[in-house]
Amino acid sequence: MRIDVLTIFPDLFTGFLSTSIPAIAIEQGRISCHTHDIRAYAANKHRKVDDRPFGGGPGMVMMCQPIFDAVKAAESQDSELRAVRVLLTPQGERLTQPRVEWLAQQPRLTLLCGHYEGIDERVIEELKPLEISIGDYVLSGGELGAMVLIDAVARLQPGVLGHEESAAEDSFSVRSTDGAHLLDCPHYTRPREWNGREVPDILLSGDHAAVDRWRDAQRIERTRERRPDLLQNSPLAEAQPLPAANNNKPAAQVARANRSHASGEVGGLLGQTAPEGA
Ligand SMILES: C[S@@+](CC[C@H](N)C(=O)[O-])C[C@H]1O[C@@H](n2cnc3c(N)ncnc32)[C@H](O)[C@@H]1O
Fold first, then answer.
1. Is 50 a known active-site residue?
2. Which of 5, 18, 184, 269 has the least CB density, counted as fewest CB within 10 Å?
3. This prediction's pTM
């Protein structure tokens, strides 16, 4: 996947792209990331990219010309790859895992980062980007949003995470058998006892099927408690007796076929279809 980022602060991406998962994805050739300084495309003597708003009011507005020319120049490279254009904006569709999974499958993304009061509406109409928000709050610029998106799609590229299963079993990817997105279960590591708190017995039992059932039950219970909205159309919304830590009652409510198993079978990532409206 090729990712082009259009920004007035390309330097912000230097550390980010050379660290952790994005760096691994780049090193493995799963993504290539190219930053473009919008300022370099400003067709005026002072490389000005913003101006005062028509109608008055506070702040500055990013001008059409530098953005339009920057997008065209970026997309003229490797032009055989058709780009999905994304504008980071608090007014966009709220980013969710199904949308990330869809974006992760595209051959190319062009990410447009706004600043100041935002971008002249006419260039948005002309470029017709998908408008994405990373949450209901306002940032100073789209760069952090672009980084969020790059990280989220990079970790879904095949082979980038150490274990394929770690993405498929994450919150919002793992699903119940009736298709509801679930939260992940709690995780524990050594030591077995810390500050008087013990690891649940079941995780030390060596009984992998029982561990699977316990984790499924935890996923469902956590989702019910913390994000009941995710279970709105699922029978799991109603509290049900969950398997106790050490019994053998099947949970069978989490979509096993879509997950990796100790046998080495690798399930496909969940939800890799276009979200509604995509
Ligand atoms: C200060 S904001 C502009 C906010 C705009 N006046 C509004 O109220 O909708 C400047 C830029 O930050 C980015 N931005 C701010 N909040 C964001 C969010 N929640 N998600 C994605 N991008 C955001 C956008 O690129 C935006 O153009």
1. no
2. 18
3. 0.89
